[in-house]
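B., you asked whether I could sanity-check this one before it goes into the benchmark set. Here's the sequence:
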Amino acid sequence: MDEEEGQARLHVRWLGRIGYRDAWRLQQDLAAKRADGDIPDQLLLLEHDPVLTLGRYADETHIRVAPEVLAARGIEAIRVERGGDVTYHGPGQLVAYPILALSRHGLLVKPLVRALEEALIATCAAHGVSADRRAGHPGCWIDPGGRDPRKIGALGIRVQRGVSFHGIALNVTTDLRDYDLIDPCGLPGVTSTSIARELGRADQPPTTESVAAAAVIFARALAAMLNVTLEQDAASTGPEHPERWHTPPLSGVA
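And here's what the prediction gave me:
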């Protein structure tokens, strides 16, 4: 395996915009193969069609509208095996699913969560947005200790047979009105925000291009946190400039 030949490698795939169930099945397949030692670590980077997902112990009452309202808008609510509560995914949002054999990195769950949070914070910083973690509330926040804490990134993972899957979601150019459907992460009254909104561009429409650009920054930041080298997987569909994946792990994000 790559890990035995030198510095560990993380195979990164940009999948573009993809339906949630398709990505979910892919995660489960890759996680099983990783647990069997058939493939190296993977990082899936993508954007979803609008969907609500609930963690395995999530409270359905944190969906604030009736099922028929969701159906009329073509939004499915899906319960999955990750931790965390209810989360929205949709256009303009970066989703990253790290499929890692934790023992190969000497990682436990809490350090992995911290690495993911640090990569979220670094991605925001690279866009000129100051973010941080919030004690007791996994993810990424703006002004977490202030009067108006705003959630910009969600986090929920699952570890099975020593392999992580599920991951993070970062609002880049997301239409934040869709968050009116839920109590994000089970927190009534929480304000959801995006990189675009924090930069004063709340009316900027969601774009896959903005997500792809953030994906490169996030992948490089996570690679730095894990001390691994990124390698574009042959199954990746992009992004437009794939050579960007091959930049060595960074001590910071330029």
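One thing to flag: The chain has a mean pLDDT of 89. Otherwise nothing jumped out at me.
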